[in-house]
Amino acid sequence: MKEKIKKLAQFLPAFVPEAHALTPGYPTIRIPTPIGGIKGTLGDWINLLINWAVALGAIVTIAYIVWGGFDYVTAGDDAKKVEAARAKITNGVIGLIIIASAWVIFRLLVSILNLGQVFPA
User: Which domain holds residue 46?
Assistant: First the structure.
């Protein structure tokens, strides 16, 4: 009987969420990397992907704003070119606001849903 209780106690954390919280390393999903071995959890990878996407998006939109500024400076007296350059700058600023808002919303959801262990800052 004691053996059955010991075996049950070993598998209990797999079925009871509160017991999982006491298990070291929960919740983790290990992802093998091509450069030998297991590195990080699924949450780490998603967090890294989101941070890289936000950084890349910000770089692209800033480059677009600079491109619009260059077009504005070189437009001269051509009203169509000036308007197109203003539109580029405006669209770039709007894109930057959208990217920043998306990142802030993601971090707020992580904070509100108490997912700090899954998606570390």
Answer: 2-112
Domain total in the chain: 1
The answer as to whether 120 is a domain residue is no
Give pTM, 2 decimals. 0.62
CB 119 within 8 A of CB 78: no
**Helix (H) or strand (E) run with residue 3 in it:** helix 2-11
Q: Where are the alpha helices (DSSP H) in 1-121?
A: 2-11, 17-22, 42-74, 79-112
pLDDT score for 44: 76
Q: Is residue 121 part of a domain?
A: no
Q: What is the mean pLDDT of residues 24-31?
A: 56
